Amino acid sequence: MERRLAIGVAAFFSVLVFSAAVLAQADTTKPTIIGFADMAARIESGYGPMLELELELRNNEPIYKASVIINGQSVSISFNALTGAEIRRQSPKRLDKDEARLYSRFFDTGTSAGSTPAKPVAALPFAAARISFQEASQIALTQVGGGTVKSIELDRKGGRMVYEVEIRRDGVKYEVYIDAAIGEVIRQKIDR
């Protein structure tokens, strides 16, 4: 009887120790950044068509910044890139010349400005970003030989999606531009 009790107590403590180890391991897992395409889809379905979407590190926190068309005006909205929660929204503003050009190119605005809601007539090129935030970071770090990533932005430049990665290494600032579709380094700038 004592032997069975000892085995039962040992089994109980083994399960308890195993459970504690699993919980400790679960607490140390890092949160995952919402993928660019997933975040773009969330924003467009919940807010409206986007003109721009950037993923940045601000104070070591990943933030998505979007420029969204709402009621024919541009609204800048920041989102937590880990949760998707809206962090900040700026007041709507009239479209600037570049935004108006993009807006008219990708959306049917009706016969008179602002008379009808925008209807997509072509997909915005954000889907061209085939490499992830993390992959762009690794490519840039490899390119400059290490350092600390300070910011990463995904934006449209010259008709294609480009990651702009800012890295600091030994007091020197590097900017690495990476084609988001194929992961190729387009150029690198060094500020001494």
Secondary structure topology:
Blueprint: H1 2-28, H2 36-46, E1 50-58, E2 61-70, E3 73-80, E4 86-89, H3 97-106, E5 107-108, E6 119-120, H4 133-144, E7 148-157, E8 160-169, E9 172-179, E10 185-191
Antiparallel strand pairs: 1-2, 2-3, 3-4, 5-6, 7-8, 8-9, 9-10
Can you give keywords for this protein?
4-stranded antiparallel beta sheet; 2 domains; Nuclear Transport Factor 2, Chain: A; alpha+beta; 4 helices; 192 residues
Q: Could you describe the 3D structure shown?
A:
- The chain is an alpha+beta fold.
- The chain has two domains: 36-125, Nuclear Transport Factor 2, Chain: A, CATH 3.10.450.40; 129-191, Nuclear Transport Factor 2, Chain: A (Roll), CATH 3.10.450.40.
- It contains four helices and ten strands, in the order H-H-E-E-E-E-H-E-E-H-E-E-E-E.
- The chain has helices spanning 2-28, 36-46, 97-106, 133-144; strands at residues 50-58, 61-70, 73-80, 86-89, 107-108, 119-120, 148-157, 160-169, 172-179, 185-191.
- Strands 1-2-3-4 form a four-stranded antiparallel β-sheet. A four-stranded antiparallel β-sheet has the order 7-8-9-10, covered by helices on one side. A two-stranded antiparallel sheet has the order 5-6.
- It starts with a helix and ends with a strand.
- Mean pLDDT is 74; it is low at 5-27 and 109-123.
